[in-house]
Amino acid sequence: MILDSAAFDSKNPKLPDNLKTIMRLRQAAPVLHQARRRISALYVTGDKAKENYAVLTPYMEFSKTLIDEQDALRDNIAKRRLNLNPDEVLKKYEVYRSKETLKADLELRRDQIAKEIKELQKTKQDESILQAKKHEGVELRNSLKSLKEELYPIEDDFVHNFLKLPNGLCQKTPVDESRIIYRQGLPKSIQEPHSHLDRKDLIDYRDPTCYYLKKEAAHFDYYTPFNCVQRFLDSGYVQFVNPDFARTLLLEAASIDLNQIEIVDEEDIKESKVNLLHLTGGGSVASFLGFITKLSIFPTFLPLRFVASGREYIMQDEKPHRGLFTATQSNCIQTFIAARDEDELDKEVETALGLAIDLFRELDTHFRIVYLPAHQLTGAESLRASIQMYSPIYNEYIEVGHLSNYSNYVSKRLLFNFKDGKSHKFPYIAAGSIMNVTRIIACLLENGRALTVPRSSSEKDVDAIKDFKNLFA
């Protein structure tokens, strides 16, 4: 049976509990999206700490970013074509810094007065001097309290604007147009291209949130992740089974657009709560970030290589909808790499892209890998290698996989670190959905290719099922 969301009401007592949960999530999300995001979950100021637990305080280098590297920041923002004014952020920083300096002076003077009062009480000198010092101490306490209250909105405004500043760009990132780094074959000319949605025998599509794959499409969707994950495991990766949910803090750390991620309607949620629960899917980069948050490791454990398969949920704003290309749910294989430095990460990324090339070659169709220009990157990305296949019906390339270089931008925000002598450093990270199986199916069908399941994957899976059944024989 096909489930059409428009026909359901989450309050309907006849609906199963799991469907009620899904519908409540979808119906509540727009309201929650409108009411939220006045403040950040990544940095919670002291006045909001009573209502919102501060999970961490990101590592932020204000002076280095805004003053020492000011020219590089301007160039970065210009290349990304962002509507950000670094001068405004710098002005906010100067006001914030002046208030912080004043607060530090008051705290220092208060400590000095406290010591002087203790000395006067010991020596039992003139009572009038002691009372004057106590009065000054009270005045300092009240001034400090007032200054803190005054500082909270200034701090909140500045830090949250600072957190919007993008990651530095990799030297490999092109400025205006994509740069091809690998290509297999060329797009084939098709006289009368047909949409993948025309294959009613393989795809039952109702809307971006409701579709079913059938026959060969379902087999391909099921077995391809097994094959992909196994290739990465053979190359030294560790398999993860990630959660389908992530908190707002993790999404903000990776500069993920919150408007594209569903909010889960928690029953005990409060209007003031900022660290909300989101449906991201176990095949998303956010699903890995909870594992590394505040994680401290020894450098001998690096590089880390993880792989996971699962769903990825992204709400697409694009209209009209384009079938499986804009489906809310996709079947993805996510990779995650952490390295000591930029050079080590570059080598790991090159190896991972090599594995991806081998996997896509088996599809026996045209594809390419390009570096996307700066203005197409998210704020956290330093470089993005986009794996693309051609869609004849739309006459354009569709991203069917990617691997992004985040440098140490996300690590600093989530305090993911490793020990280097007596100090701590932040690992360089690369991650991405190396294969979006749902979009690959659509591209293969539009190019008239067969959805061939790798024999090795299907045979291994069948053998595993037989072995499991034999346990109960």
TrEMBL record:
Pfam families: tRNA-synt_2b (PF00587). One of its GO terms (molecular function) is serine-tRNA ligase activity. Keywords: Aminoacyl-tRNA synthetase, ATP-binding, Coiled coil, Ligase, Nucleotide-binding. Its EC number is 6.1.1.11. It comes from the Eukaryota. The keyword Lipoprotein does not apply. It is an enzyme of class 6 (ligase). L-serine binds at residue 311. Residues 302-454 form the Aminoacyl-transfer RNA synthetases class-II family profile domain. Residues 103-150 form a coiled coil. One of its GO terms (biological process) is seryl-tRNA aminoacylation. PANTHER family: SERYL-TRNA SYNTHETASE. This is serine--tRNA ligase. It comes from Hermetia illucens (Black soldier fly).
